[in-house]
């Protein structure tokens, strides 16, 4: 992958341009170069003919006229504009035979993507936005679905289709690598493909996974803390016929796992919900990744469903979240702290409401013998089944999750983004190569 930054350097302040080039995009390019192989690589250098005077709405740069040793060329530019859009991507040049995108442009709105200035959670959020945009550039887009090819290199047909789901006609993409994994993930053997977003207007609808079914998957629409780049979005790229993913670079994804066909075909509202992924009312609960707490709410593209939308003030990865916590001395906060969200009514008073806590934990055993050990200050709570457990010296209780579901789902330990191709995953901890640091090796040492 070759990334062209000239337009960033010309349009943005020097500090911002340096952040984009050296801190933001560098680990993302390392990730994709490690996670993907191009099935039909460019022969020789990627080079545009002299007749291509403009590309991506600007004069073709000399590097593309002379040729670069790459399979994909990405322009990055920045603007400072009004509106809420953080970034957008467009295609500029496709391969003549396979129609694989060869040149694309991603534009960043500086007013909506601030420099993190040491805030690692904001940096992570920026990084997920740009990983999302790069995946669009590689071919995850409604304009490119029609160009997907099969394993023999022939153009696919019939893989983008209209399907009745819950009485509503929806657009789905049915490519074998993805559909097979979706059926296994949800436990629904009749699933006809990936349901695409039907809201959000132009640029959002039909170019993303449906938010209701894929909250926190990084190719669902909308920006949110704690997203995951999973086997599902990598499988979409494999289904394009253009790429061969290394699935060890996928992050675990428990949302909707094993819930059956009803999770896709059913309905929910502010007052009724069948599945744990959804909620009712406006109560506090743990976000679906278990990373922190949030309030039950919906938005315009959740089709009436509500979920525990994460609040950074209750994010277990946020070191400042202790300022908003009940009983902060019992909890653990901060990037790499190893804590997850657990619900409970613990308090020093006899009367207390239900809220979320960030506790360290370990999982032991397997199958029906799985246990979750929750560290509550100096006390250890052993959960052998779903229910409540009291804690010596405190009123109220801690709510134990189902141990097997928790340990195979939100509590599963892993190396974020498989260390971005910048280190090795050893016992679910990234061992970064020299020059890199962080829980995912995305930062420069």
Describe the protein in words:
This protein has 445 residues and is α+β, with helices and mostly antiparallel strands. It has four domains: 2-138, Elastase, domain 1, CATH 3.10.170; 157-266, Leishmanolysin, domain 2 (Alpha-Beta Complex); 276-408, no CATH class; 417-445, no CATH class. The protein is built from ten helices and 24 strands. The protein has helices at residues 6-11, 14-35, 62-66, 120-138, 142-145, 176-186, 211-214, 231-239, 262-265, 403-408; strands spanning 2-4, 36-38, 54-55, 58-59, 73-79, 87-94, 101-109, 160-165, 168-173, 194-195, 243-245, 284-286, 292-297, 307-315, 339-344, 355-364, 371-376, 379-383, 387-389, 398-400, 423-426, 429-432, 436-437, 443-444. The strands form nine sheets. A four-stranded mixed β-sheet has the order 1-5-7-6. A four-stranded antiparallel β-sheet has the order 15-16-17-18. A three-stranded antiparallel β-sheet has the order 8-9-10. Strand 3 (54-55) and strand 4 form a beta hairpin. Helix 6 runs antiparallel to helix 8 (231-239). The longest helix is centred in the first third of the chain and has 22 residues, at 14-35. The model has no long low-confidence stretch (mean pLDDT 94).
